[in-house]
Peptidase M16 (Prosthecochloris marina), 983 residues
Amino acid sequence: MCLFSRQSLFRPATVRCTIANVFILLILMSCTAMHSEHQYSYTTVPNDPLHTRIYTLDNGLTVYMSPHKDEPRIYTSIAVRAGSKNDPAETTGLAHYLEHMLFKGTDSIGSLDYDKEKVELQKIVDLYEEYRSTDDPDKRADIYRQIDSTSNFAAEFTIPNEYDKLLSSIGARGTNAYTWVEQTVYLNDIPSNQLEKWLTIEAERFRNPIMRLFHTELETVYEEKNMTMDSDSRKIWENLYAGLFRKHTYGTQTTIGEAEHLKNPSIKNVIDYYRAWYVPNNMAICIAGDFDPDEAIKLIDEKFSKLKPSPVPRFFPPKEDPIENPVITKVKGPEAEELVIGFRFTGAGTPDIDFLTLIDKILHNQTAGLIDLNLNQDQKVLDAASMVVEMKDYSTHILSAKPREGQSLDEVKTHLLEQIENVKKGNFPDWLLEAVINDLKIEELRTLETNRGRTETFVDAFVLGADWQSVVEKRERLSRITKEEISAFARKHYGTNYVAIYKQHGKDAETPKIQKPPITPLKVNRNKTSVFAENILARKTEEIDPVFLDFERDIQSENIIDGVPLFSVKNNENDLFSLYYVFDIGNNHTKKIDLALDYLSYLGTSALTPAEFNQEMYKIGASFSAYTADDHLYLKLSGLQEHFPAALHMLEKLLCDARPNVEALEKLKAGILKERADDKLSKRKILFEAMHHYGRYGASSPFTNVLDNDELKKITPEELLAEIDTLMRYRHRVLYYGPAAPAKLSSELRELEHLKRELVTIPEIEPFIEIEQQKNRVYVVDYDMTQAEMLMLSRDMRYDPKQVPLITLFNEYYGGGMSSVVFQELREAKALAYSVFSVYRIPKDKDEHHYIFSYIGTQADKLPEALSGINQLLENLPESPDLFASAKNGIHRKIRTERLTRTKILFTREEAQKLGLNHDIRKDIYENTENLDFEDIAAFHRQRFTDKKYTLLVLGKKENLDMETLGKFGKVSNLSLEEIFGY
């Protein structure tokens, strides 16, 4: 389960349909689904591109539907209008904790004998009440021992993760949930032929969730809390909201909860919270995908009618006092410095939101906004951005940026606020408003392309309590707002009424972590199945035939010129296009290419300045970007097809006629040097990139294959433009997804200047050599953090496509998801980590090796136990026939209902080519896993995992790490940041 914040810029509205009003009936098409046993009325809105139906069932449950037959799958979200703002002040974090408990099952799901189990669970409830009311440390320790003992006895009647196994068995993917201030939302992406089973499972899940496995899950939440204590972004966010909201729970409480409250939990309060808020008249089912809405609503009503409505507690938002003067808060942490400014506005359903949407885009649209051009393009700061966070009671407009070398956070603040002043004065071009509306149209089209995007829009609408018509009409409404009105709004609402967070680099005041309580590992009944699950799994479902790509059939190919083929897929949905120039050259070939392409984004042509170039691109709804990898790169042009010729011409001019700019390059170099210093402060960059590459290659790796700082400082504009010129003289291929016919497109491309020159073959280079491990090695990087994070790597055989089906099944069973044995053992049974996984990684290139790749994020004092736990699983594979069957069924059902569409078709071919394949590898997986049994993956585990030598990479505060335990695993070497970054 994950915790993250989301922003919503939409507010829906309702037009209620009645049979008596014939006129409305005609406008809204069919507003009633007729069935012999029931009649379902629904709301719809004219000109709604999602063709949304909104139902309200007899028990108050709201249902949003959007049929979309892109693939035989349905994206689902079940939203509850209850989040951290509704937590009792004395037990914060309750909404988030309940989210975790909704994965533990009911009296039917996950229980072997609930009559016996509930007796023990009630004892645990009572013990926790006694625990939280006791101050004496010795008595508390004694009570916790009783909790631990009773929990172990109760676990004998429990089947951990049965909900996850059920969802996996029906072919669900993306099973997860999140909690934020207003809402808790439960996510699944299911095969369309499994809708009835999914509804049966979900209706049961919400009927009577049982608070089982409470103390191990609480330890997981402790881990999550400790992770947030290590997060500088968490410090920024919490302090920003504390400053903006002095009275409202947006600022007085945090979603994950106070440490003191987590140490003194109450199961009784969690149950009471569920009973108060998790009622159908406070919930919505949001689905988009391949289904018949008339049949779907009948099923939803049948399954969820068992949930009984009741009055929902009212939340009375306190009125915040005006912010008269800037509120400045300084926080410290190990990561890079940053400034964040927040302004407070009224909430959802108010005119403020429309103005904020436009002002946000005028400031920052990633191409031609005031922040984009005046700050990022001119390189006055690093990574400047703007975003709006819309909430029910209040909303915020947030500006952020990082300082350049030698720049103070005060200077950064001045630069950001100057852009607000430009809006106040109307210092932005008249055409920008129209371009913003065009940009919003493109965003809407992209949202419509995915079922997930559709359901997220529904969730936002429900949570914010708005009407759907307002969502549908938003662009039209925004288009009527004038430049003068925007400037007047800005003058009225933006002044000294802001909160600024100065995130400084340094050691924060000591933050107490939540200590590890003594937990006896639980017995995991992975070989048992509840009666409920047996009945679900026994139901026969008419299967959907898989559809595999045939590259020759599904991709049209043309030769633009000799050595430059065009591969295209027709877009029959909308007017959007994406064009890619793909080169088999990357950072391993030349250290300068990434810098050269980065530099290109700051340049103009002989006809247009850099700012003018970006403005012209934004006017026509086009965007250009570059992506570089170790052994390939691509240049991407995208936008509206009607402006394709103009966008293509502009890109060609930039590639062939870019004008050098000495000042821009010097600023770029300085910015890169600052970003390099910042990267050395980033946990994720240190562990998953620098340390990971060091573990695979040693000191010389693709990651360290960059210009050193001295080389960077000496680079000239001429060298970088020569690099671009050389790139465009190499043979490449063009990928296209859009409405244009291939022949016409090929003809247009043939006229490009760079294709009229003689193109050459890309030269071969010596590959970087992966280290062959002869013994265990331990590398430690010291970092000021509460947790410890660990990667374990072991190189194995080179890529073998014949092994892919077996590896896929093994990973699904072993360590790839929440129902896997690794997750069950280390998180569910032993509570040793919040995040843990272990897989046999398949390389992306035929010349690379497979790797055993394991990760654990845990408290530093748990590291010895966590290391021991993962070692046991690396040496011994637990057997569970039920879990194996679930993993196998899940793979087949996912493949049966997966449809690769749009640009995925083109890039699936690219991935296959790199692996030496000429077909869709999913076909091999589907056909060959059918005949595999548990002994096949057990034999694979014995052959590939046991008695292996590993590289252990540990990131943590050295003084908190058990170096003696690490030394028993292998020789410990302490690495400096300079060693792993190469500069």
Notes: The radius of gyration is 29 Å. DSSP finds 39 helices and 25 strands in the chain. Confidence is low (pLDDT under 50) at residues 1-30, 32-36.
